[in-house]
Design brief:
The chain has a six-stranded antiparallel sheet, with no helix packed on it. It has a two-stranded antiparallel ribbon with strand order 1-2. A two-stranded antiparallel ribbon has the order 3-4. It has five helices and ten strands. It is α+β, with helices and mostly antiparallel strands. It has two domains: 95 residues, Orthogonal Bundle (Arc Repressor Mutant, subunit A), CATH 1.10.10.10; 89 residues, Umud Fragment, subunit A (Ribbon). The radius of gyration is 24 Å and the shape is elongated. The N and C termini lie far apart (50 Å).
């Protein structure tokens, strides 16, 4: 095994294996991929890749990939949104949008927005919202709520009179429950696809 381990090379080799096979390699296969004579030489790089978050150990003790390997969207750095500045494209990593946007997959669902009552919050008709259920909303959280039997997307608020839901469009009025209110979740992300 070489003294200096080129981790970027190992990561690219594992990504190539994943694209071809759709699974993580065994230790023996990793030895072949990395060009090592023995599968025992793989343990050092595997330990480092686990520490870096590219690999994990499955419940059965086998090596499994994280989204840093399986994520298919390259993360190239950052971009200036103010004044233009020189930029160099550099492959920093790949990411999985699920891992980036979703904290609790078991409690998250997605909805497509219709209507324009939240347009001033940047939520347009046709956008999709990622909603996380199970947590109590805080003031000004954007929530999915069932109010008097009807579902809506609004800002959550509370005052001396009780809970209310506010739109983000001056053409719509604040609403308060006459009978029932059920919070279906808190909006955690908005997804918009351009053409």
């Amino acid at each position: 095994m070489p003294r200096h381990i080129n981790m970027q090379e190992k990561i690219q080799q594992l990504r190539a294996f994943y694209r071809a096979e759709g699974r993580a390699p065994s230790f023996g296969e990793m030895a072949q991929i990395f060009g090592y004579a023995s599968k025992y030489a793989v343990y050092g790089p595997v330990r480092q890749l686990v520490e870096l978050g590219y690999l994990r150990h499955s419940s059965r003790g086998k090596v499994a990939f994280t989204s840093k390997i399986t994520g298919s969207i390259p993360a190239l750095g950052s971009i200036q949104a103010g004044f233009p500045s020189p930029a160099e494209e550099e492959l920093l990593d790949t990411i999985s949008l699920d891992e980036f946007l979703v904290r609790r997959p078991e409690a998250t669902y997605i909805l497509t927005v219709s209507g324009d009552s939240m347009q001033d919050a940047g939520i347009q008709p046709g956008d999709m919202v990622l909603v996380e259920k199970g947590e109590k909303p805080k003031l000004n959280d954007i929530v999915i709520a069932q109010i008097d039997g009807e579902w809506t997307l609004k800002y959550y608020g509370k005052d001396r009179e009780g809970i209310y839901l506010d739109p983000a469009n001056a053409r719509y009025a604040r609403i308060r429950p006459a009978r029932t209110l059920h919070i279906g979740g808190i909006v955690r992300a908005v997804i918009r696809k351009y053409a």
